[in-house]
Amino acid sequence: MVLNDRPINAETPAHLLDDKITTAENMFVRNNGIPPTSIDPANWLLTIEGESAKQSKQYTLADLKQKFTHHSYQLTLECGGNGRAEFSPGAKGNQWTTGAVACPKWTGVRLADVLKDVGIKDDAVYIGYYGKDTHISGDPSKEAISRGVPINKALEEENLIAWAMNDADIPFMNGHPLRLVIGGWPASTSGKWLERIVIRDQIHDGAKMAAPAYRVPCEPVAPGSKVADEDMCIIHAMPIKSLITYPKSGDSHKKDVQFPVRGHAWAGDKAVSKVELSIDFGQTWLVASLEKPVNRNAWQHWHSQIQFPSKGYFEVWAKATDSDGVGQPMILPGWNPKGYLNNACHRVAVQVM
Q1: Does pLDDT of 6 surpass 90?
Q2: Could you give the CA distance from residue 321 to residue 324 in angstroms, rounded to a whole number?
Q3: What average pLDDT does the segment 185-203 reach?
């Protein structure tokens, strides 16, 4: 479902995200700028530099593949604005519903291995990336997006400089030939068409790092409030969330037959400890069967069987809880000016015949 065509942004309906490993055709597309017009993988260069790098170094794709150990992880990427469409008052930006999330298999080299090969000074606090996409204005002096993460996050072993998705080249719209993959944090930290990483002695100050982009109020605010830039805090890990991928909302079902329900759940840097389902608007809950993640920062799959008590209209609600005991809110979480971090319970409608 295309939300915007300049730049192109598109999400996937929940029922098409049923696969445990998100397929290329069902991977959401998020762009802040205009994708590059030409790609030459054979001559692609990745530069690592910065005031907290011990040296500046360049790598070709062949260098990365030959010099470093290859790793594959399933990593969850979710747009920070996924669910923005539900906030009231509304927030400007792409009106994502539930489909700006995915968990493909990524293959590449560890970001940490490359950073350590260059050398990290003791004063390093952050990394930032730059990609080959261009600013929507066409002004070459402006960056479309240049975000980053704290150095301790960057050095976690699951973070990749990736060239493959699901054992094939990363699709062009998802960053071919090279992208950063930081699972569990806003997907805006996983830069596409990656050509430069800087090791910083301060919080990275690239495009879309300053407020209000990818920030929420440091303290709760009333809906519709104006929030000063200095009172906005950078989003780090994404919150606990779940998605019902079967049934499709609006499906019908026979009353006397058990009804299968399934989906995924994820929790940023944490694990999911429990998924519960309700068919009475949250009055009672049934615990679903929950699988372990294939690796850290991958979503977890859950399933259950439901017996409806009567004919009529029902809603199936899903609520996940993370390893710290924090659960999803049944209604919208705290309002914020940019419509980020909506992790309310997912709901689908079922007509029982």
Answers
A1: no
A2: 8
A3: 98
Reduced to 3 states (helix: H, G, I; strand: E, B; else coil), residue 51 is coil
Side-chain-side CA neighbours of 2 within 13 Å: the count stands at 5
Is a pLDDT exceeding 90 seen at residue 1? Answer: no
Q: How far is CA 244 from the centre of its chain?
A: 17
Q: Is the dihedral of CA 105, 136, 100, 12 positive or negative?
A: negative
Q: Cα separations (Å) of 291 from 88, 148, 294, 325?
A: 34, 31, 9, 17
Q: Where are the beta strands (DSSP E) in 232-322?
A: 232-234, 241-246, 251-253, 259-266, 272-278, 286-287, 289-290, 300-306, 312-322
Q: For residue 108, how far is the Cα from the chain centroid?
A: 18
Query: CA 30, CA 11: separation in Å to the nearest integer?
Result: 8
pLDDT score at 186: 98
First-residue to last-residue Cα distance in the chain: 30
Question: What are the tokens at 344?
Answer: 């309310």
The pair of structure tokens assigned to 114 is 């490359």
The pTM of the full predicted model, rounded to 2 decimals, is 0.95
In order of their start, the domains of the chain are 2-234 (3.90.420.10), 241-352 (2.60.40.650)
Residue 315 burial (C-beta neighbours within 10 Å; 0-12, 13-18, 19+): middle
pLDDT tops 90 at residue 4: no
CB 243 within 8 A of CB 262: no
At residue 194, the 3 state secondary structure works out as strand
Split at pLDDT 50, 70, 90, the class of 56 is very high
Q: Identify the residue whose tokens are 């990483």.
A: 197
> In terms of Cα–Cα distance, which of 219, 242, 239, 265 is closest to 326?
239
